[in-house]
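re: ur question from yesterday

yeah so i grabbed the chain u mentioned. its 512 aa long if i counted rite. heres the sequnce exactly as i have it in my notes:
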Amino acid sequence: MKLSTLLERMDYTLLQGTLETDITSLVYDSRKATSGSLFVCISGTVRDAHDFIPQVIAAGALALVVEREISAPKEITVIRVENARLALACLSAAWFGYPAEKLKTIGITGTKGKTTTTYMVKAILERSGFHPGLIGTIETIIGDEAIPSANTTPESYLVQEYFSRMIEAGCDSVVMEVSSQGLMLHRVSGFTFDYGIFTNLEPDHIGEHEHKDFEDYMHCKGLLFKQCRLGIVNLDNEHVEGVLAGHTCEIETFGYAIPETSAVPAFGAENVSKSDLPLQPDLRAENVCLLTKPGILGVSYHVSGLCDFDVEVDVPGSFSVYNSLTAIAICRHFGVPVPAIQSALKDVRVKGRIEILPVAPHFTVMIDYAHNAMSLESLLTTLREYKPKRLVCLFGCGGNRDKARRYEMGEASSRLADLTVVTSDNPRNEEPMAIIEDILIGVRRADGAYVTIPDRKEAIRYCFDHSREGDVIVLAGKGHEDYQEIQGAKHHMDERELVADVIKEGAYSWKK
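ran it thru and got these structure tokens back, copy pasting raw so excuse formatting
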């Protein structure tokens, strides 16, 4: 492909060479440079790709995209840009023939709910005859192929490659999780989303290698609404105004119904203040009820406003209302029939996200990815609403991580669960018992009962052997992960398999 074709939709300055160079590959990893490559120099947090220019030229690269003055042989074409990550996104879109323009693109951002909502959307669209692809925290799904994910939002080149492969596989749409890091690092630049969705915002991902403060985190989330045609946002979240600041898209809202409200004002593509937002969501949930069935916890509600029908979701909590309402708000734009929405939402299951396992009718067992105090407290508080006989929480904390998380999770579980079972979870280069002792500092800050069982399988066995009728047992922290990381190596460990082994190896008792 001609370099001039790759550059046709972006701003740049030609420092030397010719734009008529034939490019054979687009790379941003110096180790992948070959004869005819265009190399994009990205300045990372650890290494600066500009330092590897001699190596990529030696490997045969013919053109460079740089952010600063560099020295290169005169036969090498050098393009200067303001932001190499943005340039990579635009170049990648061109390299793959702008595949996003051939798909209906859905981007979902927010602190929580992204993963579950993407699977709900995919299930509804598939049940209605569409062929969606998916990109997210757990995996990328292209037709019948599932690719494990390394990041919630992949690098821009990979995003465009996945889009291209989805088209080849017959996909007509894609639903993807869009992280704040992904937006900040231009991983989803180079195209415009058809639909941008905001689920919620809470303090998270703030630190040295993520966002400097909450305002930066919120700003990055809001970038999606300068890059989509229609924004669909949770009106109930207190930070919706900040997320929408400076948006350039049309807006629709969803949330819980507010009784006896005034008329809803018009709402379009302009900057907003809280007083401009509609008082009543465009799509709303009303008559919300908790559902309890043998081995199952869920919710039901009625959708009103832009739609009018009943919904049942066999996943507990108000976040299940929000996640399913978000999916409905998206899928109604695809003209899907109501029965398809209802059946898909009732049946949808997401690996490691309040994933209920069919263990016994006498008590409920679920796996969830809650791996920090905020998510664990939210989960346990939600489950408390179902008034279980006992709430049992099994979890551990990862090694080589902030000890404060261990104290906080221990305190949250001890305060909200009737029994805390502290076990091992990705000890990495630390001793499992040292991590457990840190967790117990937090556990002892509250007055909940607890036991410590380092072996995770034996900890699960203990929960089942000491179960009582009406218990809700939460296996927290691992979620979709299928490994334990110990001393630099990942060892296979799927919690679902552990549960199956415990059941197979011996009957467990339960008490009324």
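noticed a couple things. Residues 261-272 have pLDDT under 50 and may be disordered. also The chain is about 30% helix and 25% strand.
anyway ttyl
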